[in-house]
Amino acid sequence: MVSAPTDERETSALETARSAAAAVLDPEVPVLTIEDLGVLRAVAVEHGPDGPTVTVTVTPTYSGCPAMEVIERDVADAVRAAGFEQVRVRRVLSPAWTTDWMTEAGRRKLADYGIAPPSARDGAALLQISVRCPQCGSPDTRELSRFGSTACKSMWQCVACREPFDHFKAH
Amino acid sequence: MPAVATYALRLGDDALVLAQRLGGWIARAPQLEEDVALGNIALDLLGQARALLTYAGEVEGLGRTEDDLAYLRDERDFLNLQIVERPNEDFGVTIARQLFFSTWQLAVHQRLAGSSDPLIAGVAGKAVKEVDYHRDHATQWVLRLGDGTEESHRRMQAGLERMWPYVGEMFVTDDLERDLVADGVAVDVTTLREEWDTYVGQVLDDATLVRPEDGWTPPPGGRQGMHTEALGFLLAEMQHLHRSHPGASW
Questions:
Q1: What are the φ/ψ torsions at residue B134 (nearest 5 degrees)?
Q2: Contact status of A118 with chain B (Cβ, < 8 Å)
Q3: Kind of pairing between the strands at A121-122 and A125-126
Q4: Closest CA to B146 of B190, B108, B203
Q5: Which of A7, A88, A114, B139 stands 20 to 30 A from A166 (CA)?
Q6: Which of B14, B116, B129 would you mutate first to test chain A, the one with the most A CBs within 10 A?
Q7: Which residues in chain B are contacts of A155 at CB distance < 8 A?
Q8: Are B187 and B38 in contact (CB under 8 A)?
Q9: Could B137 and A146 be called an inter-chain contact, meaning their C-beta atoms sit closer than 8 Å?
Q10: What digits encode the pLDDT tens for the residues B182-222?
Q11: ipTM metric
């Protein structure tokens, strides 16, 4: 049997680079990785004469998200720490980020952290029945403000347990 | 400057100048939640402005960055619509501007999302979702204030009257934009008036407010760098730190 060691090495380099980038945490919601959030769009490794070059593609949540520069720096640091000297972080705007890209794991982590996860969107229409209180689980909640502590959140309160909480807006 | 760069600068300056204006409400809004709301809206606009100014600098090809364009241009070089530079005055005036401008901006970005220029299409595709939310915020306030107390109704109506003279300029085009429309890059703003009138008219009706009478309007010219006296003061505040301490960062 003929093995393909070069291919295997390249696959494993990609895996290493990818897991390093995927593990970077969002600085404003530090329980979510950029992969959970859908901010990480692609990781590619090019093998050249000077060794591998990693290109990580990210997309901002909101146009003005101030976490973006921190995320890009953290991604470059993480990929370098995984053993790659040449790292490029590329920012793309299109296709526009949507909370539909948030992973199931991400939604669970958000709820455990006390932030109500976003509802699913179906095209342009928002399928929102009610926002459940992340503390007591009651669907009896009300919106206090359509804007919150970061661009991606709104402020809510639970009518049942009275706790205020953040809701990650469907976007 | 190439036409596409000028166009990106026009849209970017709208967003930048309004972001700066809205920032003026932080710690002064009628409720804490409004500090947060107007601050968030300003942040969205600032993000749109940064992408557009960066792009304008790249297309121009003279090495100007977003910061060079934001901080080192003088009043006559800014290409924003006059409505965004008008002073905040009271909350009713600010909300009237938010309704008028975000309704226009949403219609513009919905079309620009299909622009033949990929960067402009990308910025617009993101902005649509943000501006839709801004328009909704303005709409909710116009309804609440218009159909609120006698005093809130009076001040909301006064806000509409105050901003109305600056509405017309949003629907004026010129040769530069006409050429870009032909190339599929830009949107023809003259075609948006009816849609704008329908939306704003419905909100005003629901809010028991009256559409202001057309009367005096300033000479349009924001797109050519002709501004009201308000812009110079805004820029003085926005640019002073960067000009006093060139290259400072933290």
A1: -65, -40
A2: no
A3: antiparallel
A4: B203
A5: B139
A6: B129
A7: 33, 36
A8: no
A9: yes
A10: 999 999 999 999 999 999 999 999 999 999 999 999 988 99
A11: 0.87
The answer for B200, left when phi > 0, alpha when psi is -120 to 50, beta otherwise, is alpha
Distance from the Cα of residue A149 to its chain's centroid: 17
What does the pLDDT look like over B14-72, one tens digit per residue?
Answer: 999 999 999 999 999 999 999 999 999 999 999 999 999 999 999 999 999 999 999 99
Give the residue numbers in B contacting A (CB under 8 Å), as ranges. 33, 36-37, 39-41, 43-48, 50-51, 118-119, 121-123, 125-130, 133, 136-137, 140
**What ranges make up the beta strands (E) of chain A?**
40-48, 51-58, 86-91, 115-116, 121-122, 125-126, 141-145, 153-158, 164-168
Chains A, B: CB contacts within 8 A come to 70
User: pLDDT tens for residues A107-148?
Assistant: 999 999 999 999 876 555 555 568 999 999 999 999 999 999
Say if residues B44 and A151 touch (Cβ distance below 8 Å): yes
Task: Please state the rounded mean pLDDT for residues A15-40.
Answer: 96
Please check whether residue A11 touches B, CB under 8 A.
no
A97 contacts in B (CB within 8 Å)?
A: 126
Q: State both tokens at B108.
A: 């513009």
